[in-house]
Amino acid sequence: MTEQPDQELYYELQIAANRQTIWIHSSDGSTVGRFSPRGIDLHNTVTEMMAGAPECRLCTYGSPTQADWLTFRNRSLEWWGVDVPHNAIDTSFLLPG
């Protein structure tokens, strides 16, 4: 059996038509990021979890703040190279902070 080199993962950004939810999908089939009025989910990929990593990297529950939006954008860029535009969501639902 020949070993296959690990393929580098790539990521894509999906924005809901109403601009209230954003997802980040990985090429291994994982959804690694979600930002919505219900909070933030930033997860490891399925590939990473199968290697022993936990599911959650940073998750919140409840109404997100302006600071949460900045955190989501910063971590998406840092962890996956996904540059989420500052105006990708309707910020009217964000709490101050």
TrEMBL record:
Keyword list, A-Z: Plasmid
Source species, domain of life: Bacteria
Protein name: Uncharacterized protein
Protein source organism: Pseudomonas putida
